[in-house]
Amino acid sequence: MTQLIFLGPPGAGKGTQSQKLAQSLQIPHISTGDILRQAMKDQTPLGVKAQSYVDSGELVPDELVQDLVQERLGQADAQSGWILDGFPRKVSQAEFLAKLLETIHQAGERVVNLDVPDDVVVARLLARGRKDDSEEVIRRRLEIYRSETAPLINYYRDRQKLLTVNGNQSPEEVTDALHKVIAF
Ligand code: B4P
């Protein structure tokens, strides 16, 4: 069963690559960012609560994303594998996920870290121009990445779950490199 977590700074290519890989492996692509954006668009209670955090580049409170991940991983199509894109984003979320996977007897997750320098991700996000891709918000998201998310690299390395891929190449080259590392 393939269980993959994508890690990397905003704009590293997590969404781009994890979506493609999920399609080729025929397993669900679970993006907390996409789920939150859809909820905001539909103005659901989750979306209303998440809006100000996402717009300013802050992380949405743990309980909100943890609940949605727990619910999604419990669905029928996630019982034979999944790719998590954007979760966990901090150590408390990683600890929550570890406990959850233990409870549902799915403990074989591996973590792909997409490595891309700051100047490259800023250029990519400015070119994309999503609502939360203004220069000020991108700067805040990078700060939060460094303080909250980057510690997960050591967290998963210490647990022998970490695979690293150079994300600073063309999307096709990143895809090839990804297929190679997950084949082992
Ligand atoms: P996300 O949707 O996860 O936003 P992201 O990190 O910017 O996405 P990603 O890294 O996938 O972008 P991609 O590279 O695909 O989160 C948005 C917000 O939601 C967060 O700021 C937070 O508020 C909230 N949130 C989400 N999860 C949360 C959690 N667990 N806890 C709390 N809050 C949470 O795309 C970037 C651009 O680069 C694209 O235009 C793409 O075409 C381009 N690109 C990709 N690969 C490339 C390559 N190899 N070369 C050139 N360009 C490339």
From TrEMBL:
Subcellular location, record wording: Cytoplasm
Keyword Kinase found: yes
Keyword Transferase: yes
Pfam assignment, any one: ADK
Alphabetically ordered keywords of this record: ATP-binding, Cytoplasm, Kinase, Nucleotide biosynthesis, Nucleotide-binding, Transferase
Protein residues bound to ATP: G11, A12, G13, K14, G15, T16, R128, Q169
GO CC annotation terms, alphabetical: cytoplasm
Record region (NMP): 31-60
A GO BP entry: AMP salvage
Superkingdom of the source species: Bacteria
Single Gene Ontology MF annotation: AMP kinase activity
Record pathway: Purine metabolism; AMP biosynthesis via salvage pathway; AMP from ADP: step 1/1
Function, in words: Catalyzes the reversible transfer of the terminal phosphate group between ATP and AMP. Plays an important role in cellular energy homeostasis and in adenine nucleotide metabolism.
Subunit structure as annotated in this protein's UniProt entry: Monomer.
Entry's family note: Belongs to the adenylate kinase family.
Protein name: Adenylate kinase
